[in-house]
């Protein structure tokens, strides 16, 4: 069974109390859709939590892959972590400044995938930090390389064949994190996907439905369980999360973990890959 840090979510107060802890490292993992016009790295450089380094999910990815931010090989992930000053002994805290914890959830999942369970997410992200009066620092951070080992933990990851098998035999529930409009093919896909719609047999839990607290904080565990239940999701069964490109699927994975699920995989290819493979079934 996969494991994760005891403190999956941490508060701004917890981060403030641990800013100088030698075993804690903070990451700004902000990512936005390309069409947004925003520059997450520039925003980080203008103001960040003291000591935080910038974790770019598009850079810490498989080179040359057709899909953005595709899971990298373990050695690439480990090399990126070392360069950011992240050691295998560190407790890593991730935040972002978009939708509470969008790419932060992706970073959380990546560390789980590569065997580093000591990772937490700042609940409510940057907005919660600022609202709590947290210090906004523009001092450049020059990390000292540390030793980091990455090993792929396969239960956290699913491929297209595993998804299609789950859709066929019903032994795993496939959850789609996209909006209801995209799921039902009434809204356009933002990634030039050749087909809209959904995977037959999948269920829709828009990722934002899990983050209803202040500043996009996650809902309480009981509310999360109720949200999943309304969509027909049994958290005691194995789950596979999907979305557009594998980012908000990780919000589903994190939300399900907070709600008590422990058998959770993310389909990294998500709709970007599925819609381009014309052999895969689609409704819509």
Averaged pLDDT, please?
A: 96
Radius of gyration: 18 Å
Tally the beta strands: 10
By secondary-structure content and strand pairing, the structural class works out as: alpha/beta
Low-pLDDT runs: none
What does this entry look like structurally?
By secondary structure, the protein is an alpha/beta fold. The chain has 2 domains: 9-152, Rhodanese-like domain (Oxidized Rhodanese, domain 1, 3-Layer(aba) Sandwich); 155-276, Oxidized Rhodanese, domain 1, CATH 3.40.250.10. The protein is 29% helix and 12% strand. The protein is built from 10 helices and 10 strands. The strands form 2 sheets. The chain has a 5-stranded parallel sheet. Strands 6-10-9-7-8 form a 5-stranded parallel sheet. α4 packs across α9. It starts with 8 loop residues before the first strand and ends in an 8-residue tail after the last helix. The model has no long low-confidence stretch (mean pLDDT 96).
Entry keywords:
284 residues; single chain; 2 domains; transferase; 3-mercaptopyruvate sulfurtransferase activity; 5-stranded parallel sheet; Oxidized Rhodanese, domain 1; alpha/beta; cytoplasm; 29% helix
How would you sum up this structure in a few lines?
Its EC number is 2.8.1.2. The chain has 284 residues and is an alpha/beta fold.
SSE order and pairing:
Elements: E1 9-10, H1 12-17, E2 24-28, H2 40-46, E3 53-54, H3 74-83, E4 91-95, H4 103-113, E5 119-122, H5 125-131, E6 157-158, H6 160-169, E7 173-176, H7 180-183, E8 203-204, H8 221-230, E9 239-242, H9 248-258, E10 264-267, H10 270-276
Parallel strand pairs: 1-5, 2-3, 2-4, 4-5, 6-10, 7-8, 7-9, 9-10
InterPro entries: Rhodanese-like_dom, Rhodanese-like_dom_sf, Thiosulphate_STrfase_CS, TST/MPST-like
Main location: cytoplasm
GO cellular component, one term: cytoplasm
């Amino acid at each position: 069974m996969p494991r994760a840090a005891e403190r999956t979510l941490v508060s701004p107060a917890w981060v403030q109390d641990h800013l100088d802890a030698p075993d804690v490292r903070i990451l700004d993992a902000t990512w936005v859709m390309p069409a947004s016009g925003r520059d997450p790295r520039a925003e980080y450089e203008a103001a960040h939590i003291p000591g935080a380094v910038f974790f770019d999910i598009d850079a810490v990815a498989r080179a040359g892959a057709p899909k953005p931010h595709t899971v990298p090989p373990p050695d690439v992930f480990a090399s990126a972590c070392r360069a950011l000053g992240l050691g295998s002994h560190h407790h890593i805290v991730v935040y972002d400044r978009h939708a509470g914890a969008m790419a932060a959830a992706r970073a959380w999942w990546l560390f789980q995938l590569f065997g580093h369970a000591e990772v937490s997410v700042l609940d409510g992200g940057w907005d919660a930090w600022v609202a709590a009066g947290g210090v906004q620092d523009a001092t450049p951070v020059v990390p000292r390389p540390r030793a980091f080992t990455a090993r792929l933990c396969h239960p956290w990851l699913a491929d297209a064949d595993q998804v299609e098998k789950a859709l066929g035999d019903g032994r795993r529930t496939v959850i789609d994190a996209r909006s209801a409009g995209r799921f039902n093919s009434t809204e356009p896909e933002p990634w030039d996907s050749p087909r809209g719609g959904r995977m037959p047999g999948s269920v829709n839990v828009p990722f934002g439905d899990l983050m209803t607290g202040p500043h996009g904080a996650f809902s309480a565990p009981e509310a999360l369980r109720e949200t999943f239940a309304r969509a027909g999701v049994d958290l005691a069964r194995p789950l596979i999360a999907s979305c557009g490109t594998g980012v908000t699927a990780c919000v589903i994975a994190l939300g399900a973990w907070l709600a008590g699920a422990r058998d959770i995989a993310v389909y990294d290819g998500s709709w970007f890959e599925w819609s381009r493979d014309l052999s895969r079934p689609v409704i819509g």
